[in-house]
Amino acid sequence: MVVEAAEPSNVKDVVQPEMLFRYPVISWVSAGSWEEAVQPYPDGFSDRYETSDYDSKGPAFWLEVKGDSMTAPAGVSVPEGMMILVDTEADVKPGKLVIAKLPASNEATFKKLVEDGGVRYLKPLNPAYKMVECDENCRIIGVAVQMSARL
């Protein structure tokens, strides 16, 4: 049996470029008045855009987290200053972190959607804050699908 030495190959693995998508950074007031008809984003819709490798199911946008209601003492935590990417057509189900609009506010809020006995609630990750019922007047705008921070 004759074994021949393998010839060196000139074929090399190529790292494929990462596909990036561009989404506007909007205010919490704009998120509270978000309408499905915003996509595609008109020129001047936002002064700032950020990219992500996440390919959204529908219109999406970035929000900067305000306050400490989503800062948990342990486990998943989304502290103030983090950027969250919100997909307006991602699956909304209990356990997801959502952006919701409550009727008593002109701003959106960021909380974990939970369900107990068929009743939905918006639960902060910080136990110092109270849960709020998400009744028929509560509108879920989208689901947080990614977070990032710049140092």
Automatic annotation (TrEMBL):
UniProt cross-references to InterPro entries, sorted A to Z:
LexA-like, LexA/Signal_pep-like_sf, LexA_repressor, Peptidase_S24_S26A/B/C
Which Pfam families does this one have?
Peptidase_S24
Q: Which Gene3D superfamilies match?
A: Umud Fragment, subunit A (2.10.109.10)
Q: Can you tell which superkingdom this protein's organism belongs to?
A: Bacteria
Peptidase S24/S26A/S26B/S26C domain spans which residues? 24-145
Query: What is this protein identified as?
Result: Peptidase S24-like
Q: Which organism is it from?
A: Pseudomonas graminis
